[in-house]
Design a protein that fits this description.
Elements (H helix, E strand, L loop, with lengths): L4 E5 L6 H14 L6 E5 L5 H8 L4 E5 L16 H6 L4 E4 L2 H6 L4 H13 L3 E6 L3 H5 L3 H16 L8 E4 L13 H16 L3 H6 L1 E5 L4 H8 L6 E4 L6 H8 L5
Parallel strand pairs: 1-2, 1-8, 2-3, 3-4, 4-5, 5-6, 6-7, 7-8
The chain binds 2-phosphoglycolic acid (PGA).
The site of 2-phosphoglycolic acid (PGA) has 12 residues, from strand 8.
Length: 250
Amino acid sequence: MRKNIVIGNWKMKINHQSAQKLIDDMIAGMPSVDADIAVCPPYLYIPEVGQRLADSNIALGAQNVATHSEGAYTGEIAAVMLNDFNCKYAIVGHSERRANYADTDETVGLRFKQALDANIIPVLAIGELLEDREQGNTFDVVAKQLNAVLDFVGIESFKNAVIAYEPVWAIGTGLTASAEQAQEVHLYIRQLLAEKDAQIAENIQIIYGGSVKPQNAEALFAMSDIDGALVGGDSLSADSFLKIYSSFQK
Ligand code: PGA
């Protein structure tokens, strides 16, 4: 049986002091839930947040990872460096990276592989733009983004990966895909993987992202192929994030 997971993506929306407080509040309020939980601070805060999380069940993740393992890549952070600080997860291919930092299906594949090679679980973010959905191209876009990575790393690599379906039009906008809309795409993603390996498809965590809140988490998590959430805005409040974490019923 798949375990559920919530992952907080703090983006560049936090400072040193508020990061410390957020972690302390999360640890103090941590409910007993049989599901995974992780936070992805900005790189700079990873060592300290990691120390504060050391005795907790909250795992550490990064918001991105470099396409190469070392070398002349000014400003980049390699997967092995993240591993030095016990990062368990790394988000790859977030739509903000694709839109603003020229991430392509190819570079996302490289990042995915770098993470895996360093024993970090890649959280592969895929999802369609509003115009894709309006033109009826959601499945095609999602398949293209997924297949690009699948073809590059192979299905076996998805044994240790998480997929985050994040419709771009729902990220940070307050618009959420309905639970049914999300479920339909999650099922499609699982079926695509099942064509290559039924067991891997069955076991992989496919999480939803895009304006997840305590108010909509329960309905999303009740869907059979939604195994949790990648949460942006509402991961910056311990209260909201832990309420989302407490919303699993499966
Ligand atoms: P949001 O962000 O929850 O603020 O919509 C989600 C994400 O970007 O992963």
